[in-house]
Structure formats: C-alpha cells, structure tokens
Amino acid sequence: MTELNRFIREMPKAELHLHIEGSLEPELMFALARRNNIEIPYRNVDEVRAAYQFSNLQDFLDIYYQGMSVLKTEQDFYDLTLAYIAHIHEQNVIHTEIFFDPQGHTDRGVPFATVINGISSALKDGREKFGITSKLIMCFLRHLSEEAAFETLKQALPHRDQIIAVGLDSSEVGFPPSKFERVFEKAKSEGFLAVAHAGEEGPPEYVYETLDLLKIDRLDHGNRALEDDALVKRLVESQMALTVCPLSNYKLAGVTDMRTHPIKRMLDLGLKATVNSDDPAYFGGYVNENYLAISESLNLTKDDILILARNGFEASFCTADEKQTMLAKLDAFGS
Ligand code: HPA
Ligand code: ZN
Q1: Is-contact 24 281, C-beta < 8 A?
Q2: Residue 115: which residues within 8 A CB-CB, separation 6 or more?
Q3: Ligand 1 atom 2, closest CA
Q4: Probe target for ligand 1 pocket from 17, 56, 57, with the most ligand atoms within 8 Å of CB
Q5: Tens digit of pLDDT for each residue in 175-220?
Q6: Mean pLDDT, to the nearest integer, of 72-101?
Q7: Which of 48, 107, 165, 246 is least surrounded by CB atoms within 10 angstroms?
Q8: Which residues line ligand 1 (CB under 6 A)?
Q9: Letter string b/e over residues 82-120, b meaning 16 or more CB atoms within 10 A of that residue's CB
C-alpha cells in the first residue's frame, strides 16, 4: 500500500451523502428475504452483484427500490444501519449524516415509526459502541407527488428531534425542485435544515431552483453546476458545500473515466467539495474506496485529501464546537 493510501484509510473522516437503503449488501438482502419470506429475483449473492450494471440513474433506482423491499421490521432497519456503522468504523469515519427514504417503505405498508425507530436505535448503539456521531436526513422521493411529500412531512413531525434536515432524491430529470417549493418552505418553518440532490443528471437550472426556491443548506452532487460559470461563482462565494460521490458518478455513467472526474476541478475553482459514497453496496465502495479512486485517478496530493476531509467536517450539520473537536482530530492526524 502506498503511503498516501494508508493516510487516506487512517484519516478521520465525515460522510455527508449516504442513503442507508443503499448500504444494503447482497448478503444481508438474502438474509432478510429469508427471515421475512420475501421472494427476490436472484438465486445467490453473485447473481445480485451481476445485476448491478447501470447505464443511468433510473437503471439503478429500479434495482434499489426492489432491493429495499426485504426491509420490513424495526429489527431489519436496525440490522441494516448497524452494519453500515460497523463498516465505516473500520474506515475511520467518525461522523455520518444519513439519508433515508420513508416513502420507499410506507408505500409498501411499513409504518414510518418502524423505519425511524430501527434506524435511530442503531445510530444510538453505534455511538455508544464505536463513538460515531450521526444525523438523519429525511428525503422526499421527487417522482412522487407534492401531496405525498406533505403527508410524509406530517408523519415525520412526531419524530422531529431525530431528524436534522429534509432532502430530495430519486429520479431527477423531469422532476424539478420547484415542484417541492411549498413542502420545503413548510419543513424549514418547522425547523428542519434542507438539502437536495441536483445536477446529478439534471441541468444547472435545477441547481438554481434548489438555491432560490428550496433554500438549501447543502447541495447533493451538483456536478452539472460546472456547466454554468455564474452558478459556480455563486456557489463559491456562498461557500455552499457539495456532497460529491465519485464512484456513484462513475457507476451511473455521469463520468465515463475516473481520470476525468470533476472533483479536482471543483477544488481548483474554490468549490467546497466533499467525498461520499452515496449507495456503497451498489457502487462498489464506501468512503475510503471513493477517496482512493479519486486520489489515484486524479493524482491528488496529501493537501488535496486533507482539504476534502476538512470540508466534510466543516459542511456537516454539527455545532461549531463539535466541528472544532473533529477538525482538531484531523489536524492532529495530518500534522
Ligand atoms: N440519486 C438520486 N436518488 C437516489 C440516489 C442517487 O444517487 N441514491 C438513492 N436515491
Ligand atoms: Zn444520493
């Protein structure tokens, strides 16, 4: 292992863009299917992995929604979440901000409380067992209606102390952020922070809408913002953080060669880019594999790596004191 690779693996890190349902490894998918008597269209783990060939976001989403159908009970959500936390503990991630997609479950008859209680109790145990801190972000599925998003927000209110922010995910093109302006306005008035996926496949206009209409506090992906100089300038000046997901971009064909991945260009432009795994069970790697992939393909320096890690802590939804504590750990490691 090169010295830089070891540095990456051992460095304290944050993750800010992770769909908990996208951390469902094929082995656990099989175990839960068996436990819950659910049919899945694969005979073994190898067949599942072989099915993970995507040419765009929708290809992936079809398989992602099918995969999550094995999640039924609070214990299932607990097992899923604790497996993710145990995995990132091995990678020296010390703070994580996790998306969940309640509508992917409530639409199958799984109660909202089952989902959030299972995830939350694993996060609590993960903190006690591994010292990993976390936040939860509830996403609305943008291919569903505004009315359904409002209903989901209503279901979240009794659990508001467990949810830091609302987000927006699923199929992007054809489902502009403007569709959710009112539901985000309501969520913000209830005290939630806001994030949204934009510019993953959708045009720069969608990124403008997340800023102007959804009033986001952090931008998920944002790659296509690079097509618009005025937009880049605005993102730089406001120091809006971007949660970039390199292996996801590669697997969903937004980036066809990792040597052309835009994250280095983002840093050079002054954008506050961070490194994240998105859906690690589907895209071939957790946070470390994402750092290693860009480090190797883009010849990143140790300073580049430290800036990316620093951005991750600074762009988190932690308090200023909590950020200082995490940044001090990074500084102690890096010096
Ligand atoms: N994009 C949009 N929706 C998603 C993703 C993604 O990368 N992962 C899970 N839901
Ligand atoms: Zn995502």
Answers
A1: yes
A2: 71, 77, 100, 102, 105, 106
A3: 170
A4: 57
A5: 999 999 999 999 999 999 999 999 999 999 999 999 999 999 999 9
A6: 98
A7: 107
A8: 19, 22, 57, 64, 169-170, 197, 200, 248, 278-279
A9: bbbbebbeebbbbbbbbbbbbbbbbeeebebebbbbbbb
Q: Residue 75 half-sphere exposure, CB side, CA atoms within 13 Å?
A: 5
Taking a C-beta distance cutoff of 8 angstroms, is the pair 199, 207 a contact? yes
DSSP string, 107-175: TTT--HHHHHHHHHHHHHHHHHHH--EEEEEEEEETTS-HHHHHHHHHHHGGGGGG--EEEEES--TT-
For CA atoms 9, 12, 18, 22, the dihedral sign is positive
Q: Which atom of ligand 1 is nearest to the CA of 64?
A: 9
| Closest atom, ligand 1, to C-alpha of 172 | 2
Q: What is the pLDDT of residues 119-147, one digit of tens each?
A: 999 999 999 999 999 999 999 999 999 99
- How would you class 321 by CB atoms within 10 Å of its CB: exposed for 0-12, middle for 13-18, buried for 19 or more? exposed
The angle formed by the CA atoms of residues 214, 279 and 55, to the nearest 5 degrees, is: 90
> d(Cα 52, Cα 285) in Å, to the nearest integer?
13
Q: How remote is the CA of residue 152 from the centroid of ligand 2, in Å?
A: 19
Neighbours of 247 (CB within 10 A): 27
Report the amino acid identity of residue 191. Answer: G
Q: At what angle do helices 26-36 and 74-90 cross, to 10 degrees?
A: 160
Q: What are the structure tokens assigned to 9, written together?
A: 């693996």
Please give the positions annotated as active site.
200
Which ligand 1 atom is nearest residue 248's CA? Answer: 7
pLDDT in tens, 24-59: 999 999 999 999 999 999 999 999 999 999 999 999
CA distances from 274 to 12, 161, 263, 292 (A): 14, 26, 9, 14
**What distance in Å separates the CA atoms of residue 211 and residue 234, rounded to the nearest whole number?**
10
274 DSSP 8-state letter: E
> CATH top-level class for 3-334?
alpha beta
